[in-house]
């Protein structure tokens, strides 16, 4: 696996038989030639420091056995500068073709990514939009299967809602979500104990589901955004897509990197735990 951390990109792999020296190579879409960045003996993990990462592009790594041509592992990760401000844009309740596709197009045009908390019973109807969002490097997360207000249900039903949604997404993208957002942000002790994933809330609520007004949404974001914010929106409304066309370039002009929730929390050093609630990725 590969993941961000406060100190660099952490690479982990299954060790080959017996004891070996592993060579870590790196390249990126900006620098396509492989270069060796590290060497480690008899270990299955290596942290590549950020000063060896190309920011703003996709970085690739391969791990190979020294003095052989055997590549034991390869992976990719987005290049994020941990010293610069970042926010996580999130969109709930989708996918919905016209809105989701427009948002993804805006994100791609600005080198940005977001986290889409999808409703499981919608994904088959809008599978192409889900694939499009996933293939563009966005994070697909869980917003239950039927948009149930989870505080109204027992443990069995809550877990069924989460598991069904995860399976629906995995059937289309090949990867199951690892984050959950409870519909309405409604969480109690039963929900916390039943959900076996981190529970993600937000620190900036645009309320665009209520206003349905693009200018209002833009105003809320401009007035309330700061480094580490998790911003809540919904990819159901055309007004949200329109607002995103202004929000994303504005955030970029202000120096913000727009990253996924997982990337934000990893870089800020949050150890995401099942059943725990997280509102932001503010610097500790």
Tally of alpha and pi helices: 8
Number of strands: 15
Spatial shape: globular
User: β content, as a range?
Assistant: 25-35%
Give average pLDDT, whole number. 96
User: How are helices and strands ordered from N to C?
Assistant: EEEEEEEEHEHEHHEEHHEHEHE
* Radius of gyration from the alpha-carbon trace, in angstroms: 20 Å
Describe the structure.
The chain has helices at 97-109, 127-135, 155-173, 189-194, 208-211, 214-224, 238-253, 261-267, and strands at residues 2-5, 8-12, 21-28, 35-41, 45-49, 58-65, 71-78, 86-92, 114-118, 139-142, 199-200, 204-205, 230-234, 257-258, 277-278. It has 284 residues and is of the alpha/beta class. α1 (97-109) runs parallel beside α2. The chain is globular and about 60 Å long. β8 (86-92), α1 (97-109) and β9 form a beta-alpha-beta unit. The relative contact order is 0.15. It contains 8 helices and 15 strands.
Strand-helix topology:
Blueprint: E1 2-5, E2 8-12, E3 21-28, E4 35-41, E5 45-49, E6 58-65, E7 71-78, E8 86-92, H1 97-109, E9 114-118, H2 127-135, E10 139-142, H3 155-173, H4 189-194, E11 199-200, E12 204-205, H5 208-211, H6 214-224, E13 230-234, H7 238-253, E14 257-258, H8 261-267, E15 277-278
Parallel strand pairs: 8-9, 8-13, 8-14, 9-10, 11-15, 12-13
Antiparallel strand pairs: 1-2, 2-5, 3-4, 3-6, 6-7
Name the descriptors.
alpha/beta, 4-stranded antiparallel β-sheet, 15 strands, 284 residues
């Amino acid at each position: 696996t590969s993941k961000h951390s406060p100190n660099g990109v952490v690479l982990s792999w299954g060790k080959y038989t017996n004891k070996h020296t592993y060579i870590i190579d790196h390249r990126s879409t900006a620098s396509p030639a492989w270069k060796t960045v590290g060497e480690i003996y008899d270990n299955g993990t290596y942290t590549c420091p950020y000063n060896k990462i190309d920011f703003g592009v996709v970085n690739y790594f391969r791990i190979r056995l020294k003095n052989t041509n055997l590549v034991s592992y390869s992976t990719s990760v987005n290049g994020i500068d941990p010293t610069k401000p970042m926010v996580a844009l999130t969109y709930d309740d989708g996918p919905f073709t016209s809105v989701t596709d427009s948002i993804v197009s805006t994100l791609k045009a600005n080198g940005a990514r977001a986290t889409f908390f999808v409703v499981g019973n919608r994904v088959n109807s809008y599978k192409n939009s889900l694939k499009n969002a996933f293939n563009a490097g966005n994070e697909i997360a869980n917003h239950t299967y039927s948009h149930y207000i989870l505080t109204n249900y027992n443990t069995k039903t809550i877990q069924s809602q989460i598991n069904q949604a995860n399976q629906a997404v995995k059937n289309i993208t090949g990867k199951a979500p690892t984050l959950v957002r409870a519909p309405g942000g409604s969480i109690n002790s039963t929900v916390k104990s039943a959900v076996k994933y981190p529970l993600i809330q937000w620190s900036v609520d645009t309320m665009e589901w209520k206003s349905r007004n693009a200018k209002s949404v833009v105003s809320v974001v401009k007035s309330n955004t700061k480094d580490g914010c998790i911003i809540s929106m919904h990819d159901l409304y055309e007004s949200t897509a329109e607002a995103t066309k202004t929000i994303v370039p504005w955030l970029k002009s202000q120096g913000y990197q727009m990253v996924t929730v997982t990337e934000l929390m990893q870089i800020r050093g949050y150890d995401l735990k099942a059943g725990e609630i997280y509102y932001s990725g503010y610097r500790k």
